[in-house]
């Protein structure tokens, strides 16, 4: 039974509806200029890639007049009739550690977290793609910041999103969890890895589980996804059934991998002091995969 487990909202972090992305404006230079000139136009205040937090614990917005005229502007979208932008700074510092940033984002309003995720990913992409991957020429922002074009060869470049599978393998009423070296003490999570070129989601799930834990799986199914703006991934949550429970751990990827039963998962999600591990944060899709697994077991 899942009784007693504090199940969370339907979606993990960054998944709430954000702004109207206003695709119609991106290819309308006159419309974009008009949107920027409106007195109501807003600029998302950021410190490099980090959000600036308002006194109310939410995103902080200013007038678009604050933008450095040397910086590219990205149209994040429309909030009703209000156009919302972010600026790409000339230099981006190291920022705060991602783990510390997660802790701050955990208390963010859901919509603000989704807006920030898009802004962070786009600003980071622009900062990394000032030069053409084809010829090395300088690129400039186009389409409201949703593309860049090479000034030398004319090649268009678009923001990338990297697909990542993250999955729970089940065997005999237990799920497989692993620990990476950079995790906090006692933290376990679902195994994960990037989808490679020419590979299906199902193929990536099977390959990653075999490479990292030495198991073969079947009955792979999609559960839930999550944008992950560190820097710009799409986490694709899946379940799979393991053929056996014998593990061969790739120690270059994992410090450990263990099978955890239903009681152990429930205790961890409830943050019980005697839980066998610390669950992934509620912001992460891995937390929601564990909760879904308990729900489905009834």
Could you explain how this protein is built, in words?
- It is a single chain.
- With 298 residues, the chain is of the alpha+beta class.
- It is 25% helix and 28% strand.
- The chain has helices at residues 23-26, 29-37, 98-105, 110-128, 201-213, 262-269, 285-297; strands spanning 42-44, 46-47, 50-51, 61-63, 72-79, 82-88, 139-142, 147-150, 156-157, 162-171, 174-179, 191-194, 217-228, 233-242, 256-261.
- Helix 6 (262-269) packs across helix 7.
- It starts with 22 loop residues before the first helix and ends with a helix.
Question: What are its keywords?
Answer:
298 residues; alpha+beta; 6-stranded mixed β-sheet; 4-stranded mixed β-sheet; globular; disordered N terminus
| Alpha-carbon Rg, integer | 21 Å
| Total helical segments | 7
Main beta-sheet annotation: 6 strands, mixed
Q: How far apart, in Å, are the first and last alpha carbons? A: 5 Å
Integer average pLDDT = 93
In terms of quaternary structure, what is this? single chain
Q: What share of residues are in beta strands?
A: 25-35%
Structural class: alpha+beta
Please give the number of β-strands. 15
- The global form is globular
- Identify low-pLDDT runs: 1-9
The succession of helices and strands, N to C, reads HHEEEEEEHHEEEEEEHEEEHH
